[in-house]
Amino acid sequence: MNFPSTNWKQLGEATLNGDSRGRRALEAMCEAYRAPVIGFLRMRGYGADLAEDLAQQLYLELLEKQSWRRADRAKGRFRTFLLGILMNVLSSERQRAGAEKRGSGVAPLSLDELESSGHEVSAGEENWQFDRQWALGLVAGALSGTEASIRDAGRDREWPVLVRFLPGSGAPPTYEEAMAELEMTLPAVKSAVNRVRQKFREELRRAVSATVSAPHEIDEELAYLRDVLTKVI
Question: H-helix or E-strand containing 31?
């Protein structure tokens, strides 16, 4: 597998190559992390509209104020850096909303919702919440890539059954049930299931590889991903 450009490499290129190329790289990263950011904010109790506004604030912080220049991959994963920027955004927004509510202006975001959302959560739980959303996003992306591959191969009819054998799809059917639904022999069903599982693993590994600094970290991240998705706080 070719090792793709990682988030840290993109940040390095953004630093070296000026605003135009750097901004394109950062915009791509912001889009990739949009779902985890929104999911994290919703878990903490923010409404859909406010979560969107706060995510936009985060991206403005990264793109306009160039907060990404402070990133240091020696200090941890890119998502950890991103979470730190997001928590600063939430803190700043609460302060700004409170100040404008006390003054004559109109608060840019809902102060009541900012104050009532779960900002009492511990740092450890904050990290877990964000990492869980990150992990769910990676799994969703891997499922999407696997589905595209199956459909491109002309096996559209098989996907609704085969997807149920993949993580995050609930209890899988029995092979006998799959045989009946797909009108296939047992060896053919087993081959199709093995094929779709292998493709899913490849897609997930490719997605994880873009979030680490070097190829040897991929297996560590995959193990952490499994831990995050099974851990309950």
Answer: helix 7-32
**Cα(44)–Cα(66) distance, integer angstroms:** 26
Is the pTM value of this prediction over 0.70?
Answer: no
The 10 Å Cβ neighbour count of residue 156 is 11
d(CA 205, CA 24): 24
Rounded to an integer, what distance in angstroms lies between the CA atom of residue 14 and that of residue 18?
A: 6
pLDDT tens-place string over residues 216-228: 888 988 998 888 8
What is the spatial distance between Cα 122 and Cα 118, in angstroms, rounded to a whole number?
10
Q: Which residue has the tokens 């990676």?
A: 138
Which among 123, 133, 14 has a CA at the least distance from the CA of 71? 14
Contact 189, 179 (CB under 8 A): yes
Are 150 and 139 within 8 A, CB to CB?
Answer: no
Q: What amino acid occupies position 124? A: G
Question: Under 8 Å CB-to-CB from 195, ≥6 apart: which residues?
Answer: none
Residue 194 DSSP label = H
pLDDT tens figures, 128-154: 888 888 888 889 889 999 999 999 999
